[in-house]
TrEMBL record, chain A:
Domain Leucine-binding protein: 28-346
Listed name of the protein: Extracellular ligand-binding receptor
Pfam family, any one: Peripla_BP_6
Family according to the record: Belongs to the leucine-binding protein family.
Keywords: Amino-acid transport, Receptor, Signal, Transport
Superkingdom of this protein's organism: Bacteria
UniProt record, GO biological process: amino acid transport
Signal peptide: 1-24
TrEMBL record, chain B:
Descriptive protein name: Branched chain amino acid ABC transporter permease
GO molecular-function term, one example from the UniProt record: branched-chain amino acid transmembrane transporter activity
Gene Ontology CC, one term: plasma membrane
Species this chain originates from: Nitratireductor pacificus pht-3B
Pfam family, one: BPD_transp_2
Location in the cell: Cell membrane
Topology in the lipid bilayer: Multi-pass membrane protein
Amino acid sequence: MKTLLTSCFIGAGVLLAASSGASAQDCKISVGSVLSITGSMAAIGSAIGDAGKLAVDHFNAAGGVAGCQVNYILRDDQGSPNVGVDAAKTLVEIEKVPILLGAIQSGVSLPILTSVTVPAKVTQISCCSSAPSFTALAEEGGTGGYWFRTLPTDRPQAGVLATIAAERGYKKVAIIHVNSDYGVSLAARFRDDVQKLGAEVTDMVAYNQEQASYRAEVNAALQGEPDALFLVAFPADGATVAREWISFGGSRNLILSNALRADEFVESVGAQYLTEAYGIDNAQVEGESVEAFNASWKETKGSDPNGPGLHTMYDAAAVALLAMEQAGKPDGTAIRDNVRKVTGGEGEPVYPGVEGFKKAKALIAEGKPIRYVGATGPITFDANGDVTGPYLIYGVKDGELATLDRWDKARVGAALEKLQ
Amino acid sequence: MTGFAAYLVFFLIVALTYSIVVMGLNLQWGYTGLFNAGVVGFFAIGAYGTAILIGPDRAHLIGGFGLPFPVGVLGGMALCAVAALIVGMATLRLREEYLAIATFGIAISIQLVALNFESLTGGAQGLVGLPRPLFGLFDSPASYNLFYLGVVAAVAGLVFLALETAVRSPWGRVLKAVREDETAARSLGKNPAAIRLEVFVLGCVLMGLAGGLYVGFIGYVSPLDFLPILTFQIWAMLIVGGSGNNLGAVTGAIGVWALWAMSGLAISRLLPVAYQSQGGAIQVILIGLLIVVTLIFRPRGLIGESDSVSKHTGAR
């Protein structure tokens, strides 16, 4: 055993020496990423990893960051906090990353934040962790300002969805939600909001992931004879629930969470059953900013970027790299302090892609302010590192995912004010 | 202190925490033959018990008593003892595989209670902002980690010495007697049922102790920490290290956790960037392969159980 252990350490040491030798010659800055490549989030994890890599590749093609090439290191958390925390610690201590991107699940991101990135003063930006506990922790000062996330929290999402439900005249809404931090908090917010707008919530049913059938949950939700269903789920399980819901005679008035905006979901449920459905996702404003991302994704992957977390992951990486460029050095605290300088504000807008980053680098070199308008549109971080942004309302038209409506920030703000 | 040394300290804190769990399981399986497949459930009870006792007061939660860390850990252990006593009385008449299935189900139930009892455990949100003991006294996270490693190593060392003393005592010999032949043990006037219950509770209390130490180190607890995979990791540590030997249990904990953690590092270094998104799958295959290879060459584990032969039999 001792020999195995020793050889493990020696092996790691040799690897370490090899890479530090290389870095002296061609100047590399490492950017770390902890995502679920295997485990319960594996279906979406590796594509999200590719989105992060795309941003890094674009930056390298534009000439790198802070005078160096960027080395993207992706680590798997296997869907477990203990593995994720360990991976993050190696990235921070051994690879010396000033930025950590990830993780997907809040239950992995949070222990990484409290036990690795905040103590080591490393900026952490997540594409996908939506739990409100981060906001609470930030308000207590527990994040030290090192925490950001590019996907909006559930509060505006729930508010907009509830407002539309009321506009459509739904009176009795049932909720089926995934039993995770994401599902529980989004469902609870939606219930509070829709009740304020005068509708009744007949039942709130939680389901556990990766089951073969959800008949029991669907039956329970059908009991109150609701005229609409709010489904908070991920594509595979969501399709199972939706199929069973419709085959048991449930209403086709489906309200869908952001994670269900995936071709996989529409295909396995059947587009003809989803004509009345609507859902919410981050708005991708038309024009250069989004097309730059979509086009380069299609170029490298051969398909449209429809899937949870792709746009937000690209933006997480892009914001981190732009902040590092603005800071001029790979230092976690300096990056933290510059994140808000390259987003929001009144600077010159820059878009995703090689050309966009070239422009950003040139402007930063001239000392001019920039404002990153990303794959998810304009981004503004509040004091807790949360974003509110414009949203799009999606549905299914002619057998495909389509955008039905757009909500800009002012409209979202007005809807939320009514719900106060 | 940065770089590999800082990581090594961090790694050892986690590995030694697990070694306490593995020693608890070793007492149950290695010495007494109790097939506890619900390890993670008792780890969770200890962790949540500690978190609820030491956590800050929050309006939407029942817990948050803000007690000192040692009190929290002892409370978590006490809670574990009570839970193990109830579970033990209900299930210990079951033999090996039946006991395994029962305890496995109980562990999943405990995780589901943690996921759904929102007013106590915070539900899926978990409990955030838990204080880390004496954190304020250290000027850098690295020196704090070194201190915490000292604490965990001292606790693991104490547990090790206590167990070594216990299993070499007459009480320890009864454990092996129960494991090898319960009828024979009973015919010698021993009470196997009582012994099994004692061992089950004691082993589970050790798992709870480790849960408390884990919470103190991470400062956060959520149901995601207690998925069944952890039970299998702990079992892999015991089997690879060598069940029936406390030194084997500790070695297995460090070795298997090193394999689990450092295989990821090795793969991220060796694999071309373009294939990184396949790296996770390769890592999982590699872990499985190395465990299987170890067991082919060392079927009793790296440090197996030493033969116990009476000194009265003389030289052979």
